[in-house]
Structure formats: structure tokens, C-alpha cells
């Protein structure tokens, strides 16, 4: 069986996530404590006690990455297999690069902490906005954004699944696009509680500064393919990683395309690693026949183990 891993992005966090694993798994606890040492911050305390800090991008990103890496290690240890391909939603792409062996855990933790700060600082609070558009085709959303940008910049930011596209940009532009989409017959538009219009050209300054940080990092060859949000295709070589991650912060997330590429490669099971099961719900909308599992706590780990025990030899 060909298995793909997908890794959680920012927004999946919730207070208390990972607590069972932290208290019962040395593998998990060691990764969280290691990330805390790298940043000089008690991440476990934030995860379990400080919701306000947990939702600050500079902490959210390294915490979700550390949790996801730790769970991936636990899954591989308990079930003795490795994924054939991996991807992630935005931040999750950094976890995918760690999974591939291209980026060390230590460098990734420091990098996404700085990435989070840059994203947070890129657009002043209240200037930008993001809204999820439900039940509309790509061309309808893209046309509305193009027209609304005559008022103020607004862009497609996340192509998550059929029938869900997130738009982002200046607040006035998002409001204008919302009005145009309603006039076009779109009935469900959900404003998102985010700290900035991520994955839009408004993050250009963050992208430029991130590029300088990325140039200081040594990336190794990938031992397994990583599918990038920027194109929905595999990152073609080690040399392309810096350029891809530079673009990623201000480019639309083509998550739907990433999953289609994974499926086209012959993947039969996709396991979502990290807090929440949002990506699994996206995948089911992209291809309802795809088998999906997710792991975020003891219960879901036990379910995954039971799945493989039921079909021994499936690997």
C-alpha cells in the first residue's frame, strides 16, 4: 500500500492539544522540550495553559511543527513504515520537508518561529482580512477578486477543496469581493479570524525577508517527494526549495491540487498528522473514495494501529 502523509497548518491549534502524548510518550515530550530549548520558551506551558500566546503566529507555527514531527515519529515507530510522499497545508509544508530529510528539525523550529513573526508583522492589524467562499467555482471567485481589486487589492489565497476557496487582501477589497460574490449568487461567505491576509501579495515584504533567512539554511536532498502548495506538484529538486518557500508565503495555497497529485501518484491511504482533522475533511471532498486517517491523540493513534492490524500485510 502506498501511503502519503499530510501535515497540519496554522489554524488547527487548540488549547490542550498533545497533552496525552506529552504525559505518556518520551518521543513526543522530547520533541516539544527540544523545540522549547531552541526558542528559549516553555512551549508545553503555552500548549496547555496560554491560549492567547498559542494563537500568536510566532508560537503557533513551531508548536504545530513540533507536534506533527513527534506524532510522525511515533506512527512510524509503532507501525514500522514510512510514507512514500508527503505534503502539508502552508506551515505543514515545512513539516513535510523535515519528514523528507531535507530540513533538520532544529533548523525548521527556528525558521518557522521567524517566519511566524514576519507574517505577523507584514500587515498591521485591522488592515487585512480573509473570507472563506463556499460553493463557488474557481473562475467565479477569481473574477470577483479581479473586479474588486479595482477598489482595493483582494486575491484567492487558499484553494482548499471543491467548493471552498479562501480570499484575502485589504479589508475594503475583501468587502467588495464579498458583495460581488453575493450578487453572483454565492450564499455562504465566512469571515475568518486571522491576524493577516496570508498567502496574498500583501505578504511580499515578509517573503523578501524570509528569503534572506532561507539562504542561510542548508537544505539536503529529499529522500521522499514533497508536494508544494505553490504549484500543487512535487518540488523538483533540492535547488528549488528556497525559491518555493519564498513564494509560498505570498502565493495561493493549492491544497486541492496537492492532493490530486498525491492520488495520481498511486497513493491509496492518506494519513493526516497533527492537531485536528480539517485536512481529512478536505481530502474526502476532493476524492470521496480515498481512505484517510488522522492522528492527534491516543484515541486516534489506537484507531490507526487497529486499522493496520485488521489488514495485516497491507503495507
UniProtKB/TrEMBL annotation:
Catalytic activity: holo-[ACP] + malonyl-CoA = malonyl-[ACP] + CoA
Keywords for this protein: Acyltransferase, Transferase
GO biological process: fatty acid biosynthetic process
This enzyme's EC code(s): 2.3.1.39
Species of origin: Vagococcus carniphilus
Record: active site: 90, 199
Name by which UniProt lists this protein: Malonyl CoA-acyl carrier protein transacylase
GO molecular function per UniProt: [acyl-carrier-protein] S-malonyltransferase activity
InterPro entries hit by this protein: Ac_transferase_dom_sf (IPR001227), Acyl_transferase_dom (IPR014043), Acyl_Trfase/lysoPLipase (IPR016035), Mal-CoA-ACP_Trans/PKS_FabD (IPR050858), Malonyl_CoA-ACP_transAc (IPR024925), Malonyl_CoA-ACP_transAc_FabD (IPR004410), Malonyl_transacylase_ACP-bd (IPR016036)
Family, as annotated: Belongs to the fabD family.
GO cellular component: cytosol
Domain Malonyl-CoA:ACP transacylase (MAT) span(s) in chain numbering: 6-312
NCBIfam families referenced in this protein's UniProt entry, alphabetically: fabD (TIGR00128)
Taxonomic lineage from the root: Bacteria, Bacillati, Bacillota, Bacilli, Lactobacillales
